[in-house]
Design goal:
By secondary structure, the chain is α/β, with parallel strands linked by helices. Helices cover about 40% and strands about 15% of the residues. The radius of gyration is 18 Å and the shape is globular. The protein starts with 11 loop residues before the first strand and ends in a 12-residue tail after the last helix. 3-hydroxy-3-methylglutaryl-coenzyme A (HMG) binds near residues 105, 147, 181, 213 and 246.
């Protein structure tokens, strides 16, 4: 008899394609295209879709239309639509757009933070405390990210204790969930689990999400290792879109289609219609004039995604 993996019955997928996926694209994508992309994602059964960033348009020109995108999408009641916010100015813009959930971010590396947000870890916390206080006053939910949890493009190896300290401090700001980001896709399953070993001493697994970029083809293997460990929330990006402009060489996130295929193939529920998801990925990549980076998105058009039940 084969040994079975210890896996959850259901996984929450957090779609970050419209934000993480598009932020690094050099050619401007028209606002109506982004809106249609997000509206299509809203019809796939996803329960959380990160829409855009209220960061500096000078730093991330592609998302300069954050207000227009957020205010034009059709927001469905059962879907959470976080927006990335780095500071008080971003929070003011998010409030003006009527955002109900924000995502705040910090890194486990000072050098990465300087390049990404022009602040040390501690200075970023000073900004984020102001943001979190406003969010709490306005009854806005907060999601948190920690970047560089398995390595930094500038500092190299990152101590899991630093990841744990930053994650715990983010959580104390009022985040309902902390997403642990392998920003440069450098981790392997064992290293991911070793990092979780340290973080899970301070934060329970149901408050953690994992966020893998697929730079070295390890993302799906890392996810499986983390699910087996007890994590039940996974970030991904349809069509494998993405990359961080301040992390050289960082490729797209794990592709949502490939993740959902694996989950459904292991009888793990997601609530997601895989064919609709593949279509949404093809929609945006066709508009961008390229093939999806997801394996499923590259299968011949019309080929149904098989769902195995064992
Ligand atoms: P700064 O230049 O130090 O900002 O940037 P500042 O406070 O000195 O302000 C300079 C000017 O920018 C001012 O305008 C501000 O008003 C304006 P001026 O007076 O010169 O006309 N400004 C803003 N405008 C609009 N929205 C704002 C805003 N803030 C200031 N929010 C800042 C600091 C944090 C703003 C900048 O560095 C920034 O926006 N960085 C964001 C970079 C980014 O988005 N990176 C990618 C996201 S993180 C990521 O991808 C990792 C993740 O996916 C997880 C993982 O993979 O690990 C989450
Ligand atoms: Mg990312």
């Amino acid at each position: 008899m084969s040994k079975s993996l210890n896996l959850p019955a259901r996984v929450k997928v957090v779609e970050v394609g419209p934000r993480d996926g598009l932020q690094n694209e050099p050619d401007p994508i028209p606002t109506p295209t982004k809106v249609e992309f997000i509206d299509r994602l809203s019809e796939t059964g996803l329960s959380c879709i990160e829409v855009t960033s209220f960061v500096s348009p000078r730093w991330i020109p592609q998302l300069a239309d954050a207000t227009d995108v957020y205010t034009h999408i059709t927001r469905k009641e059962n879907i959470v639509y976080p927006v990335l916010v780095p500071n008080e100015r971003g929070m003011e813009r998010a409030l003006a757009a009527d955002a109900k959930t924000i995502a705040i971010f910090n890194a486990a590396s000072n050098t990465f933070n300087q390049k990404n947000i022009n602040a040390s870890i501690e200075d970023a916390f000073k900004r984020l405390k102001i943001v979190a206080a406003i969010a709490q006053r306005e009854n806005i939910a907060i999601r948190g990210y920690v970047s560089c949890v398995l390595g930094c493009p500038y500092e190299g190896a990152i101590d899991p204790q630093t990841v744990s300290r930053v994650a715990s401090e983010m959580f104390e700001l009022g985040c309902y969930e902390i997403s642990l980001g392998d920003t440069i896709g450098i981790g392997t399953p064992q290293r991911a689990r070793a990092m979780l070993d340290t973080v899970a001493r301070e934060l329970s697994l149901d408050k953690l999400a994992v966020h893998f970029h697929d730079t070295r083809g390890q993302a799906l293997a890392n996810v499986l290792a983390c699910l087996e460990y007890g994590v039940t929330t996974v970030d991904s990006s349809v069509a494998g879109l993405g990359g961080c402009p301040y992390a050289e060489g960082a490729s797209g996130n794990l592709a949502t289609e490939d993740l959902v295929y694996m989950l459904h193939g292991m009888n793990i529920e997601t609530g997601i219609d895989l064919d609709a998801l593949i279509a949404a990925g093809r929609f945006i990549t066709e508009k961008m004039g390229r093939e999806p980076a997801s394996r499923l998105g590259r299968l011949p058009k019309g080929g149904r995604a098989p769902r195995y039940t064992t």
